[in-house]
Protein: DUF4245 domain-containing protein
Organism: Leifsonia williamsii
Amino acid sequence: MSPRTKPPAVVAELGRPETPEETAARKAQNSANHRNRQTVNNLVYSLLATLALVVVIVLAVPRGNPTADAPAVDYAKIAQEAQGSEPDRLLVPKLPAGWKANNAELRTRTADKVDYWYIGLLTPKGEYIGVTQGFEANESWVAEQVNRTMIKGTRSISGVTWDVYDNRTSSSDNGNVAYGLSTEAGRSSIIVFGTADDAEFDTVADALAGQITQLGGK
């Protein structure tokens, strides 16, 4: 007795057995759905792995202020090594205890063709003051250093007259130039700028006054 062939199953949605074409289409759709689920799963796994990596990196980064914790830069030594390479002596402010430099360099071959000496200072109150001495600079260069802020007046500090740039009440973003001072001496344009208060700016300006006077400043 020969075995009987099993009749095709009746599909509830159709109310009848599937045709071979419908069976092939169903299997193809099931395969596509499976691949789509796998793609979504892989994407989720990748996102979770990326998130985990970010968490590990964040936890591995040391806390605290890295700028404040970095070793102080000996700007006096750097200036001494560079002296004689520019038309004026590089300014070296002698500041009280509590002040610290985090950067100092003579920048040459600049895009605007103005060499300048730069010192980045951290104040005792944790603010920033930059000292920039441009050699044979023009007015446009000075304007760039103060983010093209308009002069608000003048101040005399330890015998040196400074132009004042004050953005402390401005609603626009002026970067580190919340306040600035500039003066001319010899063939130098000197700009002192940053986020500190008047007293700390006065400390830096006073520390520079004698050297600026020697260069011919007023």
Remarks:
- Strands lie at 10-11, 16-17, 100-107, 116-122, 128-135, 153-157, 160-166, 179-185, 188-194.
